[in-house]
Design goal:
This protein is an alpha/beta fold. The protein folds into 3 domains: 7-99, no CATH class; 113-413 and 704-709, Glycogen Phosphorylase B (Rossmann fold), CATH 3.40.50; 466-694, Rossmann fold (3-Layer(aba) Sandwich), CATH 3.40.50. It is globular and about 80 Å long.
Length: 715
């Protein structure tokens, strides 16, 4: 592996940005070009304090604010000795982190793990994600950096990313896209020794497409992003990496080939030799053919090459939902990938057979998940329950085995604790946990000290976080209502929505049909009665995007907005548009209770509830995904949903939700001692944090990957 692929380009960009800064704070340029600042204590504050209003307007992009702020403001900051010391402290912490030796193990800095994922959600200023898959990738990369695990990430650089959302006055979702100004991001275009952008040719749709590579750093982990928007490409091919999960199936296939085959070629051009390839979902599985072809060109037979490729690949499957396991007919594949297949020299029978449930079925459709499973030495689901579902789902690939013997294990997802834990909660833990708790988030003993935190202090933090969410909800609601041309009285009422002392319930995620947001509209009279009770006040914050093609999910959103004029609803329920990585932290930190109501067994893991836990919130969830292994009867509430008739089960589960709210959740929250503190509620919060934060941390997840999936095995 080269010493630092793209490093010279990064150093040049840092030097150019530093020229804008006075010497006393020139290190801000180095900090800006490494997203490690997002989880270093005091990192975000450095940029926010340049100009809080501009920081928000520039999308929390550190390079942008340095380039946009007037020079006199930078001189003022440089003259502020306290601010200069803060810059020096964060810069020193960054340098120390990067200087640590790599962790010993099955992989090394010379031959790292290469992690392929079709989306990457590391920060809101880098909009390359659509949902949980990308956010999980961001958390995993941060955890790998924390653990000094040698890892490189490969994804795509989407100019327009995922769609933005707004609701019109009838509650209809309107999708729109915006183009990201890459030239303002803390990203660099990787160049050759001659100073020209690296260009990698790939045969797609009867043309040769040129791919360029961008680099973005997250701590110790470089993230390489592939981009086809080059002037020497055909206009259609320049569009290929424009949008995440584009609707056109041919373009999606071309994206998958760009990520997989183009990603393998990018690694070769960068001089990176993988010690292991980790496919996060099957989108990059076509890269296995590129690796097979390279070995066959070296004299190995197809079967010999397949053994070697399998020995160097692991695969994580993330969903049992059909839309996440797409099937393509040969008639769809051949126009897009036919020329690539021929150039690679992979036999057509093998090319298609590896992606079929039954390799010999010549007319059978193909999919990336079977291809990934057949070309990997090990595979895992993302929770124990999902492992059971996946083994049954993909048992046809192993017809001589029972479902329980299918070789798909599980590594339950986790969240990056210090990314998702709000600053007030971190400050509280700084006073009561060991000083190095941020470096030991997966150690259960570290969290035992939560039990001794005074109830009053923990409750005060919870009140602060709820107040922050109320303020954010009010500000956003004004803008949303104005954009829909709502009546003036309804717009004005937005500044009075919510109450900082009420039980605040959250339901925020993709509005996929199986997530069952529609359960909130069942048993409407009971719901309205709960909202109307002034003595036991509750309020509900909802957010999430419906896929542009999911008409049923969009109809659910319309029904929810129809209730905005019902008595007691306008001030107690709010839908926050355009759910993203900026809005999500406000919600998961501010809610007291998280609702998760998926239709089993379609929830592979779910991580939003884990993010609520780290902020002292509780969960009320169907026993699916991660909650099936987290629930213990003390740390939250559970619904044991069945798998009978869907409509009948919806009625049963909706009733179970309201029963728990009425009989247990709401009374417990509003039960106060003489000091006004809900002692028994806080006891559950402490139990939840003590037990669940270490178990469902990204650090634990990453250690488990390193010790199991990444461990050296016989081929």
């Amino acid at each position: 592996m080269l010493a630092d692929p793209g490093g010279k380009d990064l150093a040049r960009a840092v030097a150019e940005l530093a020229e804008r800064l006075p010497p006393a704070i020139a290190a801000l340029a180095r900090i800006a070009y490494n997203y490690r600042w997002t989880w270093l204590p005091g990192g975000a504050g450095l940029f926010r304090d340049i100009d809080a209003s501009l920081w928000r307007r520039c999308g929390f992009n550190p390079r942008w604010i340095i380039e946009a702020v007037p020079p006199h403001r930078l001189r003022e900051l440089a003259a502020d000795a306290q601010y200069a010391r803060r810059v020096a402290r964060v810069a020193a912490a960054l340098d120390a982190d990067l200087a640590r030796p790599a962790a010993p193990g099955a992989v090394s800095s010379e031959r790292p793990v290469v992690y392929f994922c079709s989306e990457f959600g590391g920060h809101c200023s880098l909009p390359l994600y659509g949902g949980g898959l990308g956010v999980l990738a961001g958390d995993l990369v941060k955890a790998a950096s924390d653990l000094a695990l040698p890892l490189v990430c490969v994804s795509l650089f989407y100019r327009q990313g995922y769609f933005h959302q707004r609701l019109d006055h009838r509650g209809r979702q309107v999708e729109y896209w915006t183009t990201t100004d890459f030239e303002r991001l803390p990203a660099v275009l990787v160049t050759s020794d001659e100073g020209r952008p690296l260009a990698l040719p790939l045969e797609l749709r009867g043309r040769t497409v040129q791919i360029q590579i961008w680099r973005v750093d997250f701590g110790r982990v470089p993230v390489y992003l592939l981009d086809t928007d080059r002037p020497d490409n055909h206009p259609i091919d320049r569009w290929m990496t424009a949008r995440l999960y584009v609707g056109d199936r041919h373009t999606r296939l071309a994206q998958y080939a760009t990520l997989g085959c183009g990603g393998v070629r990018a690694l070769a051009a960068l001089g990176i030799e993988p010690g292991l390839v980790h496919l996060n979902e099957g989108h990059a599985a076509l890269g296995g053919f590129e690796r097979l072809a390279a070995r066959m060109a070296g004299g190995e037979t197809f079967d010999e090459a397949l053994v070697k490729v399998r020995a160097q690949t692991v695969f994580t499957t993330h969903t049992p939902v059909a839309a996440g396991n797409e099937w393509f007919s040969p008639e769809e594949v051949e126009p897009v990938l036919g020329a690539l297949r021929e150039r690679l020299g992979v036999p057509a029978a093998a090319f298609y057979g590896l992606g079929r449930l039954h390799p010999g079925g010549e007319q059978e459709a193909v999919a990336l998940t079977p291809l990934a499973l057949r070309t990997s030495r090990a595979a895992n689901a993302v929770s124990k329950r999902h492992g059971e579902v996946s083994r049954a789902m993909w048992q046809p690939l192993w017809p001589d085995r029972s479902a329980q013997d299918v070789p798909i294990g599980s590594v339950t997802n986790g969240v990056h604790t210090t990314t998702w834990m709000a600053a007030p909660m971190q400050a509280l833990l700084d006073r009561h946990l060991p000083a190095d708790w941020r470096q030991r988030t997966s150690e259960p003993g570290v969290w035992d000290a939560v039990s001794s935190i005074p109830d009053a202090e923990l409750w005060q933090v919870r009140q602060t976080l709820r107040q922050h969410l109320v303020e954010e909800a009010r500000e956003r609601s004004v803008g949303m209502r104005l954009s829909r041309a709502e009546p003036p009285d309804y717009v004005d009422a937005a500044m009075r929505i919510f109450d900082a002392d009420s039980l605040t319930i959250g339901f925020a995620r993709r509005v996929a049909t199986y997530k069952r947001l529609h359960l909130l509209t069942y048993q409407l009279e009971r719901g309205l009665r709960l909202l109307a009770d002034p003595k036991r006040a509750i309020q509900l914050v909802i957010a999430g995007k419906a896929h542009p093609a999911d008409d049923e999910a969009k109809a659910t959103l319309r029904r929810l907005l129809d209730f905005r004029r019902a008595p007691n609803v306008a001030g107690r329920i709010v839908f926050l548009e355009d759910y993203d990585l900026h809005l999500a932290p406000w919600i998961v930190a501010g809610v007291d209770l998280w609702l998760n109501l998926p239709r089993p067994p379609f929830e592979a893991s779910g991580t939003s509830g884990m993010k609520v836990v780290v902020n002292g919130g509780l969960n009320l969830s169907v026993l699916d995904g991660w909650w099936a292994e987290a629930y213990d009867g003390q740390s939250g509430w559970a619904i044991a949903s069945g798998d009978g008739d869907p409509h009948a089960q919806d009625e049963i589960d909706a009733a179970a939700v309201f029963n728990l709210l009425e009989a247990e959740v709401i009374p417990l929250f509003h039960e106060r001692n003489a000091a006004g503190i809900p002692e028994r509620w806080i006891a559950r919060v402490k139990s939840s944090m003590r037990r669940l934060v270490p178990r469902f941390s990204a650090e634990r997840m990453m250690r488990e990957y390193a010790e199991t999936m990444y461990a050296v095995r016989d081929a």
